[in-house]
Amino acid sequence: MPTSIRAGPSTATRLLVLPPREPHPPTYTYSPCSPGSSPSARLRHYRFLRPAASQRAVKQALRFVQLLPRQYVDARTYNMLLRVCARAGDLRNALHVADMLQAAGLKMDSHLYTTLISGEHPAA
């Protein structure tokens, strides 16, 4: 039986499901920050995306990023999402992430291209 992700106040994140491969499911958390800092400083994407990469859970990682509000998504988020696709060897979804990045008005940089080409893509 799939394990639901423990989530904060957002009901959308409760819809995400990961296969039960680790004893404690990844979490989506907010941490307090100073009043003058940006809201994205509070959001900890890596607490979900790093375990998703080790579990090769591409579909759940894509859904997670799609459910995030736009103001919380930046180039680092897409880089982590590309890393999930690269670890799973999923070139099709990695290219989809690159398209999502460009649709969000961001540009590919050397870090993103390196992550994209470093994947474990199967030989044709």
How big a fraction of the residues is strand? under 5%
Counted up, domains total 1
Number of helices: 5
Helix amount = 40-55%
The average pLDDT is 74
The helix-strand sequence is EEHHHHH
Low-confidence stretches: 11-15, 23-35
Give the helix/strand class.
mainly alpha
For this structure, the quaternary state is single chain
- The total count of strands amounts to 2
What does this protein structure show overall?
The protein contains 5 helices and 2 strands, in the order ββααααα. The chain has 124 residues and is mainly alpha-helical. The chain has a two-stranded antiparallel ribbon. The longest helix is centred in the middle third of the chain and has 14 residues, at 75-88. The radius of gyration is 15 Å and the shape is globular.
Question: Helices and strands in order, then pairings?
Answer:
Elements: E1 3-4, E2 17-18, H1 46-54, H2 58-67, H3 75-88, H4 91-103, H5 110-117
Antiparallel strand pairs: 1-2
Helix pairs in contact: 1-2, 1-3, 2-3, 3-4, 3-5
